[in-house]
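Consider the following assembly input.
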Amino acid sequence: MHIASGFLSPPVWGAMAAVSGAAMAGSLAVAGRRLDERKVPLMGVMGAFIFAAQMVNFPILPGTSGHLGGGFLLGILLGAPLGIIVMASILVVQSLVFQDGGIEALGANIFCMGVIPCLLGAAVRRLWMRPKVGLFADVVTAIAGIVGVLAGATVVILLLSWSASLPGSVSLGHALGVMNFVHLFIGIVEGLVSVAVVRFVLTMRREAVFGVGAKEAIG
Amino acid sequence: MHHRMLDHFAGGDTPVHRLDPAAKTVALLAAVLATVLVGRDRFLPLLPTAVALAAYHLLGRAPVWYVAKRLLVVSPFAAAIVVLFPFLEPGRPVWTLAVGTWAVTVTENGLVRAGHLAAKFVLCAWATVLLLATTRFQDVLQALERLRVPRVFVVQLAFLYRYLWVLLDQGMRLRMARAGRDGGVGPRRVRFQSSVGVAGVLFLRTYDRAERIYWAMMARGFDGELRGTTRAHMHLKDWIFVLGVCAAGVAVVICERVLCG
């Protein structure tokens, strides 16, 4: 759901650039203060990991398969500040190198696909740091994953509507309905896949990613 | 997918390639702003930007087929909106298609709006492709650092770009290995589990790779600064280029506001 160049009006992309710029500044400040030096390459390759993980197809419903968005998973695995920086770097590269998402719309795209899902992921991260992780964590995480995708899609439609970039005969309610319906399936993929991958990581590498020291180190 | 594909033409030696990367990066921003600040449904104010990009394209000897191919990879979401516009915007009907009791109408307003959005999108994407067709990505990063983008973020972009191709290759190898074992058949639940395994293994290998990279960096004495083989400086021609482009952009925006109301 990358917003391309020309779709947002100047006040809207300007405001979103300010919001995401503030989120980035906050994340960079936290990262600068608490960042262990060895997390520098980790963040970099995590961005590349999301690119590669997006190639993996997950069969979920009959006839459909989906791939990962990534922001939500990064929020769980790295926490909000690092997750937001990594997602922002991914969106910058997608915009500059692959022409996916407009340059002036970067703020909006970072907010919808970076800030929102990373904050939700970071919110459920603590469930996975408990000594005993039960079914509760799975369910809450899956729901948070779906909510993150739907919230991002809703904000995209609201921004387009405020920019008068929706066709005249399409009501806001209509657009929201269609967009959320489509993204419900994308969200289900995101939620289920994130839970499954986090479970996998928890089994294999609990101490490094969710250990006692991990919170201070990764924050 | 090959990394050579992306900055394959950035190693050329033309007047445009020799410009300072920071000047070119600022010029890209000016071109994008001069495009997106044009009021809705106006085409004429987009013309100067198109002419400027065409001139840059010719001077930089960027191959037409390469740029055209990159422009065709449109974000599906943007394409869907542009395609739907002519049908969903109210206005004077141009063409009506009736299927039984269903009638689809294409309106004049809708065509104009769709054309305008598509034109803006193409101009911005063209400008972006031209920057990377005439400048190496590492040089763009160095330019960003000189333009006061925080160093942590520039280092992040450098690492991401450096390892993107390594991990894409690794992802493809994992996918191929999986396909060789299950051939894409079997119960959905099993295939889902094996996809999770592929993503999970990719994550763990990436995590371990980060550790190895860290030790390699320490062995080389990394101190947080990225040192390239080239150091760019702003010469007179770079100042003339960047100030000229910015002045032209401002002129376009002001003329558009004054002349078109």
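Chain B has two domains: 1-149+235-261, 150-230. Ask yourself how this observation constrains the way the partners meet.
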